[in-house]
Design goal:
Layout (H helix, E strand, L loop, with lengths): L1 E5 L5 E6 L7 E6 L8 E4 L6 H8 L3 E5 L2 H7 L1
Antiparallel strand pairs: 1-4, 1-5, 2-3
C-alpha cells in the first residue's frame, strides 16, 4: 500500500489505474490540507508514473506501508 498525502491547500488530481480494468485509467482527487481528509491509501498495483511526477513537483508526499504498519493502524 502507498499512502498519498496532499501537501497543498488546494485539491490535487492524479491519474491512477482503474480497479475494474487494468488497462484503464481514472482520476483521483485528493482534497487539500484544510479539508482534513488529505490522506489516501492506494494499492501498489494501481500506482502510475503520474504519482511520482506529482511527488517531484512537490504537490504530494508518498510513503510505502508494510503489512505490519497497516495492521497496527486497525
Amino acid at each position: 500500500m502507498i499512502e498519498i498525502k496532499n501537501k497543498t491547500r488546494g485539491p490535487v488530481q492524479i491519474l491512477i489505474r482503474s480497479r475494474k480494468s487494468p488497462k484503464a485509467f481514472t482520476t483521483l482527487n485528493v482534497p487539500g490540507v484544510g479539508a482534513g481528509n488529505n490522506i489516501y491509501m492506494l494499492e501498489d498495483e494501481r500506482n502510475t508514473e503520474y504519482v511520482e511526477r506529482a511527488e517531484k513537483m512537490g504537490l504530494i508526499s508518498t510513503r510505502h506501508l508494510t503489512k505490519k504498519e497497516l495492521n497496527k493502524g486497525e
